[in-house]
Specification:
Helix content is 82%, strand content 0%.
């Protein structure tokens, strides 16, 4: 039997917390990537433009995830407001 305390809002909130944890880990990896790019001069095997292109793609993906997390917070807030209004 399902936990009666588990609501859509609580499930979404837990999911967002997990997503935030993964986001923080990926942001740290992105910062480390930027540090490696800055510390390693380009060579015939590696170009700055290629490094920056990959970095920008990773940063864009991370920004999209940030927007998704923010939308999740908004949804949880709306669910809470709707639930409170329904109880009245």
């Amino acid at each position: 039997m399902a936990d009666p305390q588990l609501t859509a809002a609580s499930f979404l909130a837990r999911s967002i917390e997990d997503e935030q944890r993964r986001f923080a880990e990926e942001a740290k990896l992105l910062a480390e990537h930027a540090e490696r790019i800055a510390a390693t001069p380009p060579s015939s095997q590696r170009t700055v433009s290629g490094d920056l292109t990959r970095f920008i793609a990773e940063a864009t993906f991370l920004l999209k995830r940030a927007v998704t997390i923010e939308a999740g917070f908004e949804a949880v807030g709306l669910m809470g407001a709707d639930s409170a209004a329904s109880e009245q």
